[in-house]
Structure to design on (140 residues):
């Protein structure tokens, strides 16, 4: 659990510290802006921006394309952002929550836990271009 939220919590803590420093220097406006920026960063790097995750077994059983991801991964965040509403058409599996999912990713990524790994029609693609994934969703 802590590993999933670690980067987000670290971002929030840094924001509080930096804002406190700015506030002690007599700059409440600067403190507010910096705190807001760090809190936005914390939300972006948290698991909250991804669709509700499922276990690997449920995702495979659903028969839809699957994205294996982990919190804090900038490439996963890029994929999620670029897919926009289309992201809801995919099953999202957090490899830090599901050891079976991590094993599946290692099978496609030469033993590494490289994410995002997208599985479409049983074939895995490691860190694919988001536009390519959108095109695949159109034909799926």
């Amino acid at each position: 659990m802590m590993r999933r939220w670690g980067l987000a919590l670290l971002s929030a803590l840094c924001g509080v510290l930096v804002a406190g420093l700015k506030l002690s220097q007599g700059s409440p406006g600067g403190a507010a802006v910096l705190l807001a920026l760090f809190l936005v960063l914390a939300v972006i790097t948290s698991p909250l921006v991804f669709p509700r995750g499922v276990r690997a077994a449920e995702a495979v059983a659903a028969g839809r394309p699957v994205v294996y991801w982990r919190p804090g991964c900038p490439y996963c965040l890029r994929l999620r952002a670029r897919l926009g509403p289309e992201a809801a058409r995919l099953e999202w599996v957090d490899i830090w929550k599901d050891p079976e999912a991590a094993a599946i990713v290692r099978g496609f990524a030469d033993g590494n836990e490289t994410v995002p790994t997208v599985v479409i029609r049983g074939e895995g693609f490691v860190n694919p271009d988001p536009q390519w994934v959108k095109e695949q969703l159109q034909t799926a």
User: Anything to note?
Assistant: Helices lie at 2-24, 28-44, 56-62, 74-83, 99-108, 130-139. The chain has a mean pLDDT of 89. The chain has two domains: 2-47, 52-139.
